[in-house]
User: Fold this.
Amino acid sequence: MHEVDKGYFTEDNSAEVVISRIAESTDPRLSEVVAAITRHMHAAVKEIEPTQEEWFKAIQFLTQTGHKSDDWRQEFILLSDIFGVSMLVDAINNRKPSGASESTVLGPFHIPDVPELPMGANICLDGKGHPMLIKGRILSTDGSPISGAKIDVWQTNDDGFYDVQQKGIQPEFNLRGVFRTGDDGAYHFWGAKPRFYPIPDDGPVGKLLGALGRHPNRPAHLHYILEADGFETLVTHIFDPDDEYINSDAVFGVKESLLAKFDLIEDSERIKEEGAEGPFYEVVHNFVLAPEK
Ligand code: BEZ
Ligand code: FE
Assistant:
């Protein structure tokens, strides 16, 4: 009998003795995952050497994280977000061919079944903030326009909240819309210039951020889900590079390729041409979808 199979526990063999208990008949992927987590968890505990009080504090933290979670609030996802794990899982599962637009986190504020709007519609229903025209094209990696691409977009209002965070305060579907491209792959719609806002920070994850001297803010961004037949679905954002939090996103969602340009248009000809009431921000951004594998 091997030493670990006797089941006698020592500080040195701790991980192996636990891993050896996994039955041969276990689903191989489950076995692999549990073994890796056991190995890394035991290594972390050996590095940290927690006191009993510290370990209990960690258990209490996880308990509070569970208590804060329900169908709407997912505190464990927030925990994964602030550790950069959500972004790492996203990166591993969205390796793109050269030239394709990069992905980033979905976040908790997407909702299904948002009404499809005519191209050029204004999704800012509360009239707050600086008007912003967003336009560009949805392209394939070979440069050809994608016809019939579905653009699902959502953003916060000028107070830094999504409509679903302020039911009864913001109009339903404020700053959300679904658009579909025509043969030229082009899109354009009006919104409001986004601003930074905090991730929900009234729970244990917010407390942890505070204890670590980290702020809870995400730099100004617009969310997108882009879908088209024959192409990989892209979940992404565009970010305002001039935002004060652009280099310290609380959830590590920023990639250099996702920075867009937010230009202030004050030229009266352009204002007239676009039918705007005054100066507006303009963002021109193309998205490139990877062909389905
Ligand atoms: C968001 O951008 O909507 C978001 C992403 C991760 C955590 C919280 C909010
Ligand atoms: Fe967001």
